[in-house]
Amino acid sequence: MTKDRKLIIAGNWKMNKTVAEAVDLVTQLKRDLANVKEVDLVVCPPYTALSDVSRVILDSNLRLGAQNMSEQNNGAYTGEISALMLREFSVRYVILGHSERRQYQEESNELIARKALAAHGASLKPIVCIGETLDEREGNRTEQVLETQLKGSLAGLSAHQMEETVLAYEPVWAIGTGKTASTEQAQSAHAFIRGVVAALFDDAVARRVRIQYGGSVKPNNARELMSQPDVDGALVGGASLEARSFGEIVTNSI
Ligand code: PGA
After folding, report:
1. Domains and CATH numbers, the chain
2. Is the overall model pTM greater than 0.90, yes or no?
3. Residue of 87, 45, 85, 81 whose CA lies nearest to 62
């Protein structure tokens, strides 16, 4: 199927893979996906593997992403990593506001907005994650939650920066649970999100911005999800840890 927007499929490896395992995985992906031109492909290893993975994919169609970064550029922030440090490894994308960070590190929409601005300041494209919990969905609060997250996490971005930002709709109840949103649930959330972007920016920006779906994306559900008019890619957790399943997600999406 043809969409104006190029699909973007990213693997979020989370806190998995030693350097040796990461190099092994990305070496297989580089070989298996060498001919894929229709999709922007991104791998997001842990910080410790960025340098080695970066070297492996230098001459490939794979792009590098990080899973988080500081909102500060440098200074006395023990344990933090800045956008400029990521740039040293040719990182192009950075996942921001993943629900696990919102939950375990208590990241707020305001913090995520500051990180998104810092990412753009260093020419990194943020992948900003939003999504409702099961309680929120069952309480019919999905749209309200998504709107609040979008308004807060995208605050201060220019229209151009918004176009260069990727959004990832990840219903929290679908992450790592094997429960995928139905294609109707995904499409309706994505259409709603695009509408909010149109209201916050304008129609042209909303038409260009790419919205990934995330939450138990697997080879057997990728095609149907990706065929939805407002679904422009996937943010893949568990199934990105093996070359075969990530590769099948990509090839099934084309
Ligand atoms: P999952 O994770 O594919 O394992 O559900 C998705 C994510 O958290 O990005």
Report:
1. 7-253 (3.20.20.70)
2. yes
3. 45
